[in-house]
Amino acid sequence: MIVTFTVRSGQGEPSAFDRGDIVFSGELGEASSVGHVPDQGMMLFLAVPDLLDSLVALLGRRSTSASFTGIGSAYRLDFHTKKQTVTVKGRSGPVAQVSHAELAGAVLSAAEELASRHLAPPPPGDPAADDYAAALNRFRAAAVQAGARRPGAGDG
Q1: Cα separation of 49 and 138, whole Å?
Q2: Can you give the pTM of this predicted structure?
Q3: Measured distance between the N- and C-terminal CA atoms of the chain, rounded to whole angstroms
Q4: Cα–Cα distance measured from residue 46 to residue 134, given in angstroms and rounded to the nearest whole number
Q5: How much is the pLDDT for 88?
Q6: Which of 59, 61, 119, 149 is the most buried (most CB within 10 A)?
Q7: Measured between alpha carbons, how far is residue 56 from residues 14, 46, 71, 82, 118 in Å?
């Protein structure tokens, strides 16, 4: 499964209110906020921490389901666990069936890439950057617990 978080260009100075898109691609389909009418883009730096936090209990096996709706958007993802498999669904149907570790690794990789490209260094006085970093740290801990490999880790 591949997850991408993309900031839309042409928005001026970076801020927490920058709009962007989320795409989950898997062997069963794709759930994308790109190219819909009405627009399904969202305030990415507010939405991604919400997504990360919504998945922490699922990865820790304290919940068997999680849902995410993008802030200011109709974009929605649902996650359901059955035995050792997490089914990822978008509005148009199933996207993937993956392990907790694979889900955690794909989301963590996308979240860390977004942070390194757009939040390093964080925009001055932007509290959303602190919220993003805190959510990323919580998610990183849950991802490691779920068995996710660190992004960029070799095969051994």
Answers
A1: 10
A2: 0.90
A3: 21
A4: 12
A5: 98
A6: 59
A7: 27, 16, 18, 17, 23
- The encoded tokens of residue 88 equal 């990822």
Give per-residue pLDDT as tens, 44-63.
989 999 999 999 999 999 99
The per-residue pLDDT string of the chain (156 residues; one tens digit each, 9 = 90 and over) reads 999 999 998 888 777 788 999 999 999 999 999 988 777 889 998 999 999 999 999 999 999 999 999 887 889 999 999 989 999 999 999 999 999 999 999 999 999 999 988 877 666 677 888 899 899 999 999 999 998 875 444 444
Sequence-distant contacts of 146-155: CB under 8 A, at least 24 apart:
146/59, 146/60, 146/100, 146/101, 146/103, 146/104, 147/99, 147/100, 147/101, 147/104, 148/101, 148/102, 148/104, 148/105, 148/108, 149/101, 149/105, 151/105, 151/108, 151/109, 151/112, 151/113
Start-end of H helices in 10-118? 44-59, 100-118
CA atoms of 110 and 131, how far apart (whole Å): 17
